[in-house]
Design brief:
homodimer, alpha/beta, Isopropylmalate Dehydrogenase, eleven-stranded mixed β-sheet, 12 helices, 15% strand
């Protein structure tokens, strides 16, 4: 299996990207195809001549997409960028998946344009795993691909989310909940009331509206939302956690007893932080495009990239795209 | 000054409600007017015969509104409920404010119907204080009054939020940020792009879109949003914090070292929990109705009610309604 890696995308590119990809190549015995500036890539790769050998290729490109570039423009003007070329390798069947920590909007736009939509899919969505109080994470879709949704989009997210959840966990009929501001069917915005009706009528496994509190208790395997609300949800969750950890650090530092307690409790509290660490989940697949395009956080380090490639391998092995195509056959 | 207190509303009514109101009456030298079941109220009040005297009245009612009652129905069928009568006391100028921890939807509907809207206000909104990493809290509006907003609603929330922030802090021109999924003006849903344009053109102090992370850093004094997104934002924040504290408790209990550390760090971590504790902020005023209607959390204890009455007194003293009316003169 070959995975195309956008070597130039992300806050810590190319160093952390290549480091994580080399680890993945060694561990999983796959070929990583580094796409980007040839000189920069080879310089990084020179650090891995020692140690366990691994399989790789380099595809040189001359352009780079930054976080400031607009998705609509990159389609026209960045055809020789690392991201564009990496996605093309999947469209050309030269690679089975592409992994990038670069500009998410650009990756979605290029994936949609170059790979195309699965027949029947109105708009692809982004799904991610979120830790819950119970053992397993729940999955949330859409975390920001489609800011303006019609109810039909949300129904499709539910169906694609179920396929993904089944693929990851083996559960035959994952439950689906609609993120909303109240449990009753008539709660929420007009859009959510309509989405609720549609899900109730056409989504097997639909258990109704769920509020954030219930979501964190894993009240549903798959939680669906429009991409605007979903993006606010996930960003609020991340920044609340960050704020809390920051406040705790300050509070523990404010007294000797607190400092000692903090040191003793450190390894335990670290477990919580690790459980919440997005990098353990790597990247998230864009569901609904004809190919595997894994979107990583801009701040991805080597560990995140390693796990993103693990996700890419797993969903490719399990035939994600074929299974999604079957939904509309 | 007289504050009407819905003695029957809330998870811990009437006990905690009356306890908090008695404390407030003693501390602030105001009169609390308890509205609700006369027998139940007098039974509770019998506990406070000893100690510092305080001023109170009892207005007996025969009906109760539960959390399951629908706002539209209570308007027709619950005119002798504690909540309805308490709000009427404000409309009749017999009280200067009303405080309830009961059904929020019902309180908003009755306040709107009985007190009426301030001339010029399209839809009243709910504002709340949220702790930030910096010293002072920022204020967020709307946390759930208006699920379906047009951009003009959001502009009005911004203006009313600024008046409230000025009243609480004394800052002449509070800054305003629009909660959104990206900083650039063209980010977000169509609704938010339009709201951004309107705020940029007509809201002095508008600093642009802000993401949740920036909100917690107090990037703006007043953060505005539609009520659906705002309710998801605040509930996600609350439940992330609860989930984290739950996980930490479990993690600290998993080893001796963790347990000892947890005990030592307890008082420090408690500070963080207290900083996040909504009950310190009491209740939140409904902005845009012709009267002071303070909405409290259903789980409000005596401390929350005490602080809610403090808020009621302060905003009454500062002439909140007159200041809001001036916006549309």
């Amino acid at each position: 299996m070959k995975v195309a890696v956008d070597a130039m995308g992300g806050d810590y590119a190319p160093h952390e990207i290549i480091k994580g990809a080399v680890e993945a190549a060694r561990e999983f015995g796959i070929t990583v195809v580094f796409v980007g500036d040839e000189v920069a890539i080879n310089l990084e790769l020179s650090q891995y001549r020692e140690g366990q050998p691994f399989s790789y290729e380099v595809v040189p490109t001359t352009q780079v997409i930054t976080f400031h570039d607009h998705p609509s423009e990159v389609l026209r003007t960045r055809k020789d960028s690392s991201l564009y070329r990496a996605i093309q390798l999947v469209a050309e069947n030269k690679c089975q998946a592409i992994v990038s920590a670069g500009n998410t909007g650009a990756q979605m736009a290029i994936s949609l344009f170059v790979l195309g939509r699965i027949r029947g899919v109105l708009r692809p969505g982004l799904i991610t795993a979120i830790p819950s109080i119970s053992d397993g994470p729940f999955y949330f879709i859409d975390i920001g691909a489609v800011a303006d949704c019609v109810p039909e989009n949300i129904l499709q997210f539910a169906r694609m989310g179920q396929v993904y959840y089944r693929l990851v966990t083996g559960k035959e009929t994952p439950t689906v909940g609609l993120l909303n501001i109240g449990e009753e069917a008539e709660k929420g915005s007009r859009q959510m009331i309509e989405a609720h009706k549609l899900l109730a009528a056409r989504s097997p496994g639909f258990i109704g509206n769920i509020e954030p509190k219930e979501a964190f208790r894993h009240a549903a395997d798959v939680v669906v939302s429009d991409g605007f609300t979903g993006n606010i949800f996930i960003k609020t969750m991340e920044s609340t956690a960050e704020t809390l950890f920051g406040m705790m650090k300050t509070a523990l530092g404010s007294s000797i007893k607190g400092k000692v307690g903090g040191v003793l409790a450190h390894s335990n509290l670290r477990l919580v932080k690790e459980k919440l660490d997005y990098s353990q989940y790597g990247g998230v697949p864009m569901l609904g495009v004809k190919g595997i395009s894994i979107v990583c956080h801009g701040r991805s380090d080597a560990t995140a990239i390693y796990h993103a490639i693990r996700v890419a391998r797993n969903v490719s092995d399990e035939g994600l795209v074929t299974k999604l195509e079957a939904l509309w056959k």
